[in-house]
Automatic annotation (TrEMBL):
<protein>
    <recommendedName>
        <fullName>YhaN AAA domain-containing protein</fullName>
    </recommendedName>
</protein>
<feature type="domain" description="YhaN AAA">
    <location>
        <begin position="1"/>
        <end position="203"/>
    </location>
</feature>
<dbReference type="InterPro" id="IPR027417">
    <property type="entry name" value="P-loop_NTPase"/>
</dbReference>
<dbReference type="InterPro" id="IPR038734">
    <property type="entry name" value="YhaN_AAA"/>
</dbReference>
<feature type="transmembrane region" description="Helical">
    <location>
        <begin position="461"/>
        <end position="482"/>
    </location>
</feature>
<keyword id="KW-1133">Transmembrane helix</keyword>
<keyword id="KW-0812">Transmembrane</keyword>
<keyword id="KW-0472">Membrane</keyword>
<dbReference type="Pfam" id="PF13514">
    <property type="entry name" value="AAA_27"/>
</dbReference>
<keyword id="KW-0175">Coiled coil</keyword>
<feature type="coiled-coil region">
    <location>
        <begin position="184"/>
        <end position="235"/>
    </location>
</feature>
<feature type="coiled-coil region">
    <location>
        <begin position="710"/>
        <end position="737"/>
    </location>
</feature>
<feature type="coiled-coil region">
    <location>
        <begin position="400"/>
        <end position="427"/>
    </location>
</feature>
<feature type="coiled-coil region">
    <location>
        <begin position="487"/>
        <end position="542"/>
    </location>
</feature>
<feature type="transmembrane region" description="Helical">
    <location>
        <begin position="434"/>
        <end position="455"/>
    </location>
</feature>
Amino acid sequence: MQIQRFEIFGYGKWVDQSFQLTPNLNVFNGLNGSGKTTLMSFLLSIMFGFPNVRRKNTRNYDTNENARYGGRLYLTNTRYGDVMIERTKTNGKQNLSYTINGEEKQTTNDVSFLWNDLTKTDYLAYFGFSEDDLMDFIWDDEEDFSKSLMSIGMSGRQVLTEITPAIAKQADDLYKPNGKNPALNRKLQDIEDAEAKLIKAQDKEAAYFELRQAYEKESSRLDRLRSNLKDATNGEIQLELANQQSTSMNEYLRLHDELAAFDFVDFEPDLANKWLQADHQIDHLSQQLAELSEGLPENPEESVNSSNLGMEWIQNHPNVSEQMVVEARAFRDRLRQNEDLSQDLIERRYEKQRLMELLGASAVDELPEELTDDERNHWQQRYKALENKRIFYNHGQSDMSQLDQREADLTKEFDELAAEREKLVATGKQGENLVRNFGIVLTVLGLLMLIAYFITSTTFLFGAGVVATIIGIVILLIGLMMQGAATKRYENRLEAYDLDLDDIESELNEVQRDKVVHEEQLEKLNLEFNEMADELDTLLVEKGGAPNISTEVWLEDAYVDEIFNLDNKIQQLEMALGVSSFGKAHEDQWADYVAQLNEGDLSEEDYFQQFEDDYLTIRRQQANQDYATYEEQSRANRRDQVKSELSVIKADQERILDQYNFKSGDELLAAIDRQNQMQQKQNRHDILANHLDLNLAIYLQQDQPVEAQLTELKTNIQDMEEEISQLTRSTADKRSQIQEIANDGIAPQLLQAYQAKVDEAYELAVAWAANKLAIATFEKATVGESTDVKERVLTNASRFLLDLSNGKYTKLTYADEGMDVITAEDEVISVNQLSRGEKVILFVAMRFAFIDAQLGNIELPIIIDEAFSHLDHQYRSNIYRFLQKFAQSHQIIYFTVDEGLLDEIDVSARHVL
């Protein structure tokens, strides 16, 4: 018989689920808490009945009000054909039905005929075992291990000659029809006595429940008052602190409102001084400009600018200027003759220079060899993977900010609570010392008056002494009670502070651990980036590149090959134009002239043209101007320079005004001065915020002054303490009356005791009936009483053990003195000498050997619950392989947390929970 499929209507965490099984190996794999045990319980519940939740330590799986409790099993290859079993529970009553081969549904109370009348216990004893069964067996007494091993592999005559009489004796020990000493007989007599006490106690039930209801009402009121008193006491401390900080707190609130209405501007550092310095420079330059402008024309174009840098260079090199101007004119003439080629040359030179700058190379000989396509693809994939990680972790910076803020908030909260606790400890235990001391004084005074009476025999002293002593003792007792209550309040508050501090410290540790993990991830990423950069630098050097070459650009595209191609093309164009030789005679002078121009990279055409223009300009100036003209030009140049400086300063001031949206410098300076004043107030505000408990500000913002709030709260505390005192006395009185009635017996308690005795008797009766039924069950379930049972089981067990031990152990032998195993080297070893792991495979071999011998009479699914997770990998692999092989002829349902099982063998049906 095999389970083909099972459907769950509602059972624990499983609702409206269905699982398909195969006739071979079925594995349910999942972590702890995934529902494996619940599934196993469901299968056994549909087969044998739902768990009795009234029994102690029994788990209740009927937890979902929106789902019908129960489900169905679909069986195949039974002696009756295909069978469907449905078991549900409605209003506490189990409903069981079945269908055979799709015929009409039959309602019944028992389907044990499908499993050869086996009970749940018997079924698990034969066809199921768990890790607990395995470990209990393995840790058995070493001396009795071999006999225990043989007992789990043998049945037959052992059941009839040893187990059955023992079960019969257990049944007689529970109940005899005419007995008195058996446990069930005694329990029935206890039930009669409990029933008599119950009837007697029902007369007092009304008064008891009235007292009980009043007591619970007053106790509830007392608990609320104590809680309110605790809150009020905490509020009193807060109000006292607020009263002490009222002056500074009011200043803080005033500054807070004023600062909230002011918008701070992010001015440049020392902006006011910069502005004043600029004003001073403007005045000074304006004065210079006025002096230089006297006698000079206002139009700057009327004066020739002789301060051109190129012209200065020509004036400083008169010997070579005429030769260089000839070279420049010849070069330009050649370019005009080949305009298309020259334009192509200029474009290729520009493109080559651009790529060189991207790579960071100043000369072609600094370039490395080009990367192959495979190399570039490999490095680009590595770089992209790291860059993706960087983007992910950069996004995680917001998490770090939240963790920092969370840590700061928790630290602040911890410091505040620690300060409050220290203040509470410093204050100490406060109690009603005055009342206690007054009672002591009055008691001592009364005793002294009594002593004086015995000395003087004065009647007044005796009466007054007795009264004073009694009153003093009463007051002393009240004072001690009040002192105890105050001490209790102090200890409760101290304990509350300690619990809060522990919670905050635990949260702080968790936040700090999260920060450490994130920082470690970032550090690991930076290390990977650095390692990749080092490897790229090494590869660059190996390829012949200079250290200043940018590896990222080199990696990005094949720029090196493009540069070499451009260089070859440029050389070809220069040869075609014939311009490469121009300027060679004065190569150093041309380089010096280009540097003097200070205009960046210029083409030969540009600086040759510039040189020719500068040379002609100098010639015109020399022909048309005398010494006075040069002097005037110098003043004009200086005036232009002053104008330029003045324009730059004013433009900078205009930029500042536009940036901060001010119309004039006076407005800007006034705003900066105002912000400096507000910044001082901000500093004062921050100092107060760091030294004040800002949570107390709520008390200062109430309609009533803090003093009035404190007075009102103290009055409420006094009223609550008086009411608590009254309720304490009242509840103590009611508790005494309730206890007096309870001593005589309370109906609900007696009813509960009576019901408990009935339940105990029911369990004993069930156990007695189960023992009686077990005798018949074992006789039906055994292999038989043939003399070859032991040999058949040992033969199968030896075969299984050879497979499970990888050929290490070849045979099992059993005699009255014990059981031995024989190794592949024919060495005989007692099973008591084996390791615990080897005992496990012996257990598996014997258990499945018995099942193999039993299959001729009973064939039911084998259910295994997490039995091998403690074994090492080798033995576990062997057992999994053995289960797969054994499942080819018999259905096995295995529940486990071991994910490695799914990789070790070919599972017919895999269910990952």
